[in-house]
Amino acid sequence: MTVQVVTANRLRDGVIVWLTADLGWSEEFTESRPLRDEAEAKAALEAAGVAVKARLVVGPYLAEVDETPEGLKPNSARERIRASRLPTITPDQGSWTGRIEG
Amino acid sequence: MYRYDEFDATFVAERVKQFRGQVERRLAGELGEDEFRPLRLQNGLYLQLHAYMLRIAVPYGVLSSKQLRKLAFIARRYDKGFGHFTTRQNIQFNWPELVDVPDILDHLASVEMHAIQTSGNCIRNVTADHFAGVAPDEIEDPRVWAEIIRQWSTLHPEFAFLPRKFKIAVTGASHDRAAVKFHDIGLKMVKNEAGEIGFEVIVGGGMGRTPAIGPTIRGFLPKQHLLSYLEAVLRVYNLLGRRDNLYKARIKILVAATGTQEFARLVEEEWARIKDGALTLPAEEVARIERYFQPPAYEKLPAISTELETAKRGDATFARWLKANTHAHKVDGYSIVTISLKPEGGAPGDASADQMDLIADLADEYSFKELRVTHHQNLVLPNVRKQDLYALWQRLAAVRLANPNVGFLTDIIACPGLDYCNLANARSIPIAQRLSRRFNDFQRLEEIGELRLNISGCINACGHHHAGNIGILGVDKQGEEFYQITLGGSSKDDSSIGKIIGPAFAIDQVADAVENIVNVYLEKRTGQDERFLETFRRVGIDPFKEKVYGNSQARRPAAE
User: Fold this and answer.
1) Taking a contact as any Cβ pair under 8 Å apart, which residues of chain A between 22 and 51 contact chain B?
2) What digits encode the pLDDT tens for the residues B408-448?
3) CB contact under 8 A, B479 and A78
4) Domain Nitrite/sulphite reductase 4Fe-4S: where (chain B) (predicted)?
5) For residues B72 and B63, is the Cβ–Cβ distance under 8 A?
6) 20 to 30 Å CA-CA from B172: which of A46, B106, B150, B401?
7) Residue A12 lies in a domain
8) Residue A23 falls inside a structural domain
9) Contact state of A15 with B51 under an 8 Å Cβ cutoff
10) In this complex, is the C-beta atom of B429 within 8 Å of any C-beta atom belonging to chain A?
11) Could you tell me the residue range of the domain that residue B439 belongs to?
């Protein structure tokens, strides 16, 4: 079985998060809890279900990843973009200028 | 411009209050996501890839400077300092937090804007010719009728849960700039033999998975019957449209399955029942709404401005922009200006808060405080005195907003794609960026001439790829991005759906493929006045196919 992780969006602000080893949520993909078999995946989704009920996250799902000597790596274009937490358009290329506090 | 009446102001205020309560109940756990999702969608709030996205309606693409300034404020205060103008003449914010959205809606309501019916299976924001009211080829101003449709369709209880979303476009001009044949209903103002003005009614066009050019079901509809006829069309669709299959639920599928003639008969039958009833438009009500769209206080100016002629002769860069980005106006001495939101290397349709503020200032100074959003994702200053064009251009050029590429290959339509969108298979914006860099030679763009290139990141076709002379569609191949190219699409009077050239390309191959396609066109055209589309229709797809796939291993298609 391929390695999977659980990911979702945070309810309050929509930010992408990953389920961590201690069944918390992190904005860092690299802190994802690797799920190596069906039992682990099932347990992780159950934990995510609790977080949904607790209004922490919405739409949790399992995403396949590659396990490499450097750690977990997302293995699709979609998950790579999500893991980077930003569009691939850098500020100097697009219009966005960073949030201006005000 | 139309101003909210008491009814508009009341329902918008009520909706904001309701949504504030719904967000509070969601955060308190009284509403689950399944219950909350349809409520947030009814208020234009999606949950996208990285964050929530708020889609705000710009009714028929008409925007005041005050409204644009408010959008700039929202971009700064609640987003990452920019907004994205869409192919439906709307604006989207890509980064709002759920907890802030009720406040954003309050700010919008203060300038008579909202996000209602920008999502869901209802009648969406009505779109119109972006040159409405100022185009010289206009039979009648379509904004009046778009506004009447807006009032009728807003919170229409019978049509709040249609089989699928429903889009209406209106044009009052002889040249179609509103892509009316690609809408669920397209309305084109026409004159009959008696010289009366009415509507040609086109039903069942669309993009998406099953692109269709809408057939005309009525050649002439007298204006006073507009709403009863629309109601008849919607009622037939609401009753007979499929609800069992998401992909077969749009009206285009019903029209194709029923047959145009039979569909038209069903509509006429229903219409006969309700015609001359409560929906007949009273002349005085139409006149009341027409008064909101009276022309601004134009000055009496000569058709030719000597200041403009002098500036044009003295500055070739300005002359180039003038040729590409300004359009004939119905009033002597005035021009329509398109502000390109397609800078080299930029994201099509994006505008920063600072740019929005500046454009709002320019609208105040030069265009009677009014702007338009185009479905090509540009902004328009509809009423600029010719003698002011040089000064205006200098102001735009200072902030990277004077790209002279309107109507050219780099005036690209692109959806947000996989950089933002939850539904996308592939990114759109990086393809647009690469092409805008590859073709950033204005002499060459002028030589190529009119060429519409549209990019969608998935088959839902928000980037109108089917209607691009060159269309690019992002597809997913085992989690990776590939791009299918179509040729020969058009959304103008000569509407057509692009044909697939062959197997899809990897991201690094797309710009080369487009370059090859353009080179074939340049080789094959009979002269500079034969547009890409005409050459394609004359020579067919084969010469393009041979060049794109046949020349080397390096250009070999990457995936089936």
Assistant:
1) none
2) 999 999 999 999 999 999 999 999 999 999 999 999 999 99
3) yes
4) 119-273, 411-548
5) no
6) B401
7) yes
8) yes
9) yes
10) yes
11) 413-555
